[in-house]
Amino acid sequence: MMDTTTRLVEMLGSGKKLDASIISANTDVVAQYGTSEDAWELYRLFVDDPYHYIRGLLLQPIMRCGDAALAQDMYERYVRNQASPEHIPDGVLHVLGYLGYAEATADLVAWVNGQYGAASVDACMGLVHLPCESYREQLAAELEKAVDQSLFNEFLPLLSFKCTQADIVPRLVHWGEQHASVDCNAGIIAGIALFGEAQKDTIQSILWNPLWEAHGTATGSCVWSYLAMQHVGLTFRELIWDLQSCDVSKVGVQALEYRLDVLYEMLELKLGYTARPIRFARSNEESFGQLYSDLFSWSTEHRDDSMMGWMTEQLGYRHRMLDQYHELRKRVEMKMVHEIELRHVRTGN
After folding, report:
1. Which superkingdom is the protein from (predicted)?
2. Per-domain residue ranges of the chain
């Protein structure tokens, strides 16, 4: 068992006031490096008080490191014979799907569009990971009822790839652009991405389109846009190249500022977001050294033709976004050093 898990056990058993950020920092590490032994130890802590939001933070490493036996125990304890999900702790249905517990599939399907919002979200998140062939028509019918609505179960569109074909993507795009509230479009963005790499251009178009507000932090869309771009194989290098290739005289300064805001938020997530809400989703493998080079390096010593230099030319040296990107540069530098250190620790070179 990891020392980090031991520290979590001690903190949660101390009776002292707990800081969610400190707990999250520790659970993030366990999620990345832990084993099923760590998952079981944290699961015991979760069971002690499953409705407390601090204990809910333990579910991230539990689902990343848990095993089939843990999923079965969780199902028996919280889900079996439940007539409704009203009393199921938040996150449990997601964990069951994430761990591939197929026996829960029928329960999750029954609750994808119920009156308990959190449970419906968790059900959709769980079903993404489970075989749904027997429920395709039922899920497609639920999706059809939601299409072109403004407000709906935000993550129901995640299941599009489970119950429809890729030819639904234009309808999903139209839904997101013309009807869906920006409070609800995260699932549409991620749902399109789950159809795979063929949707790379669609996801890039969504990122650059202000109608989507795909980088919204208040709505949480930024996280799902980041996951979407990774899953379709859209890289930061491609986004940077596309930005620098655009004709600002045609797209306008406002559009350029919007795209730079989007890129900034995606880079923020690259720097700090470690959760994996979808087990099979692809990850961005660009190194921080590569990112630094693409964003900040000069090709010659005579002229700043980096992203920063290009921004200065387009927006002027006093523009607010230059300060944001200068601060970002410092953080990328720190990550680059940490990346080199980790490589040395792992390889000895």
Report:
1. Bacteria
2. 1-66
